[in-house]
Amino acid sequence: MDANAAVGAHSAHPVLLADTIMIEIRPATAADAPVLATLMHESVRHAGRLAYSEAECAAWSPAAPDPTRFAMSMLNPALQFLVAVDADDTIVGFGSLGPTPDHLDMLYVRHDRIRQGIGSQLIAALEAEAHAQGATEVHTEASRLLRPRLEWLGYTLVAAEWVERQGVRIERFRMMKAL
Predict the structure, then answer these.
(1) Which CATH number is 3-135's, of 3.40.50.970, 3.40.630.30, 3.40.50.620, 1.25.40.10?
(2) Which pLDDT belongs to residue 21?
(3) Residues whose CB is less than 8 angstroms from the CB of residue 176 and which lie 6 or more positions away in sequence, other chains included
(4) Reduced to 3 states, what is the DSSP secondary structure of residue 33?
(5) Which pLDDT does position 1 carry in this prediction?
(6) Matching SUPFAM superfamilies, A to Z (predicted)?
(7) Whole-prediction pTM
């Protein structure tokens, strides 16, 4: 069975990564929200330092999002959240589509698990979901850290842009890929 077809059908599917790393990609639940909120914050504050200054990372994520509010946003039917879970049933990454099926909104991998193929597998699953929902292309706003991986996966740069968070300007990149 095609890995992307399984995810697009909202069923869990194990994915073999480099060497012996095994993950499962499944739809996120509201019960995952506390872990996802923490993972997002820690990813920005630790892995983000590979491409951004401490001030930029602190402005991007001054604190972990409130888990209750995060869970409420996950219940929005316009958003599709997927999580990557390792063999120990630990969430090691997540991504989301929305508010339209052609927008890759979030992608975060645990800071101690980056560069292990987890993000690429989440992107593939999210692209499959977007395609299943009728999207013919996917758009996103990528960080400096994510941009090279997206280019490797076939995304093209639309434009560099600067956003302001907590009074600090942060560079990101609008990118797209035809499905």
Answers:
(1) 3.40.630.30
(2) 67
(3) 137, 138, 139, 140, 155, 156, 158
(4) helix
(5) 28
(6) Acyl-CoA N-acyltransferases (Nat)
(7) 0.86
